[in-house]
Amino acid sequence: MIEAQDLCKHYGSFAAIDHLSFTIHRGEVAAFLGPNGAGKSTTMKVLTGYLSPTSGTARLAGVDVVQDRVRAAEKLGYLPENGPLYPEMTARELLTFFGEARGLGKGRLAERLDFVTQECDLHELLDKPIGTCSKGQKQRVGMAQALLHDPEVLILDEPTTGLDPNQIRHVRELVKKLGQTRTILLSTHLFQEVEAMAGRVLLVNDGKLAFDGTPEQFKQKGGGKMEDAFRTLTTHA
User: Fold this and answer.
1) Please, what is the end-to-end C-alpha distance for the chain in angstroms?
2) Does 82 score more than 90 pLDDT?
3) Structural domain boundaries of the chain?
4) Which of 49, 98, 132, 232 has its CA 20 to 30 A from that of 210?
5) Does pLDDT of 236 surpass 80?
6) What are the DSSP calls for 13-76, one per residue?
């Protein structure tokens, strides 16, 4: 459902992504880890179609992201970190705008709006201008936008940023539930989020895949601790 095949992204002589390959199947929630500057954000931008790779192939649900950008976008729900939202709109207006832009009919849009309102706890936010919302409230609106069209693939960048403990727990439960039937790539710097939501860990370093396995296998690289495994796999000798 998410496929990176020999991906490269060069900026002059610098390789932000260096022959990176992995596949994530339906029903998997994969945590995407890496130190700052390792190529994680660049990889996500290529997978979402925001950047074109220098070489290699990126596919979402079998659709080549470069060759058929529009059809790939139909398969994808994307929550960027601190994603852009129109501050003058209310959450209802924003979600209606995105739903209509994605071609959802009136009945289907109403159905999906009810779903994301419930799942993202937007009841008190629907008619509030987004510009007056807190960071955590904006994050919930962003999550609702990513889920609105019922995508097969979700790419979530730091989805619990700015949320309080109750909201974090709700997002964890939602991601695990969605991950039963969808494919989710979850970028985070928080190891507790990896253990709470992911069944697989992908770690990139220097633009290359440094680890691919379960959270338990990852911890074994650090003597049972994720922090130590991360340090071991990303520290240069």
Assistant:
1) 35
2) no
3) 2-234
4) 49
5) no
6) TEEEEEEEEEEE-TT-EEEEE--TTSSHHHHHHHHTTSS--SEEEEEETTEETTTTHHHHHHHE
Q: Indicate the pLDDT class of residue 17, thresholds 50, 70 and 90.
A: very high
The owner of tokens 């649900």 is 61
Nearest of 61, 58, 74 to residue 26 by alpha carbon: 61
Q: Is 237 exposed, middle or buried (0-12, 13-18, 19+ CB in 10 A)?
A: exposed
Would you mind telling me the total number of residues written for the chain in this entry?
237
- What is the rounded CA–CA span in Å between residue 8 and residue 46? 10
CATH of domain 2-234: 3.40.50.300
Q: Is the pLDDT of residue 142 over 60?
A: yes
Residue 180 has which token pair? Answer: 């039963």
Beta strands in 66-199 (DSSP E): 76-79, 153-157, 183-187
Q: In what order do the strands lie in the sheet with 55-60?
A: 14-24, 2-11, 55-60, 63-64
Q: 3-state class of 201 per DSSP?
A: strand
As a whole number of angstroms, the distance between CA 141 and CA 150 comes to 15
C-alpha radius of gyration, the chain, whole number? 18
> Is 211 within 8 Å of 219 (Cβ atoms)?
no
